[in-house]
């Protein structure tokens, strides 16, 4: 056998092997783009155009793109076993009612709930309504003549953090405390040995109620009446504009009057 011919055949086999290995590590679309277009070769239907575009369309069809988490939809969670039910609601209702009865029995003749102040709701949306607050302020207790420690013993809640921001609200709660004191009956700790602050024997025999004072009306309703002639002639808008102008030009008018007085005093000299 001719050695030169054998060497040429060996080199052609090695070149073919290297080319096959290189193709194995190159993506399919790179090979498609690197080869010149040959109309004789038939392309598969999924690679109808540019290979990169075809891969993008395939990714979009599969439902994921970029570096995102793959979908892992769980459709077998057996949710019927995890449904929240409330079949014991009637029993819970009866249990709460019995607990309230037992608590009322242990309280004796004391009110069922503590006395709390009447406060306005927060924000412009709710400040027209009155509701029960956390506790009375120290200023309200002082004006009503109730001590801080005494209030804790007669069913009055105290809130040392709250502050009175209006005289109307403070006056309302002071009247509420005074009305509570007039209706309050304090039993002595030991029968026949009354101390300072305990009610008299006649008050102890009076009929009592366990309901607390209701909240006052937020805005007392006025009875309908006729408009007077003075109210009919009153110009509200004109009055507001006049008062606004007076407040706005008050300083300038005072400065002008003072300057005029100085000039008149200088002329007299």
TrEMBL record:
GO terms for biological process, alphabetical: translation
GO molecular function terms listed in the Swiss-Prot or TrEMBL record: RNA binding; structural constituent of ribosome
Superkingdom of the organism of origin: Eukaryota
Keyword line: Ribonucleoprotein, Ribosomal protein
Low complexity bias spans: 211-222
Composition bias type Basic and acidic residues, residue spans: 195-205
Region (Disordered): 191-227, 249-269
GO CC, one annotated term: cytosolic large ribosomal subunit
Family statement drawn from the similarity comment of this UniProt entry: Belongs to the eukaryotic ribosomal protein eL13 family.
PANTHER family recorded: 60S RIBOSOMAL PROTEIN L13, LARGE RIBOSOMAL SUBUNIT PROTEIN EL13
Protein name per Swiss-Prot or TrEMBL: 60S ribosomal protein L13
Phylogenetic lineage: Eukaryota, Fungi, Dikarya, Basidiomycota, Agaricomycotina
């Amino acid at each position: 056998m001719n050695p030169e011919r054998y060497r040429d055949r060996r080199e052609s086999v090695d070149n073919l092997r290297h080319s096959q290995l290189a193709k194995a590590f190159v993506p399919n679309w790179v090979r498609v783009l690197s080869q010149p277009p040959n109309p004789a070769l038939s392309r598969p239907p999924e690679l109808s155009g540019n290979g990169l575009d075809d891969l993008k369309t395939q990714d979009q069809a599969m439902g994921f793109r970029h570096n995102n988490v793959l979908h892992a939809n769980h459709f077998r969670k057996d949710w019927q076993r995890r449904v929240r039910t409330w079949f014991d609601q009637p029993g819970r209702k009866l249990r709460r009612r019995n607990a309230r009865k037992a608590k009322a029995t242990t309280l004796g003749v004391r009110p069922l709930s503590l006395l709390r102040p009447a406060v306005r709701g927060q924000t412009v949306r709710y400040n027209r309504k009155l509701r029960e607050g956390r506790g009375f302020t120290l200023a309200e207790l002082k004006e009503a003549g109730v001590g801080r420690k005494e209030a804790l013993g007669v069913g009055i809640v105290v809130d040392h953090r709250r502050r009175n921001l209006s005289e109307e609200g403070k006056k309302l709660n002071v009247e509420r405390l005074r009305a509570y004191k007039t209706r309050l009956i304090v039993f002595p700790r030991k029968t026949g040995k009354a101390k300072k602050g305990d009610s008299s024997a006649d008050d102890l025999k009076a009929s009592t109620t366990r309901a607390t004072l209701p909240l006052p009306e937020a805005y007392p309703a006025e009875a309908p009446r006729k408009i007077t002639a003075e109210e009919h002639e009153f110009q509200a808008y004109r009055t507001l504009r006049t008062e606004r102008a007076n407040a706005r030009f008050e300083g300038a008018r005072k400065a002008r009057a003072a300057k005029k007085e100085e000039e008149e005093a200088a002329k007299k000299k």
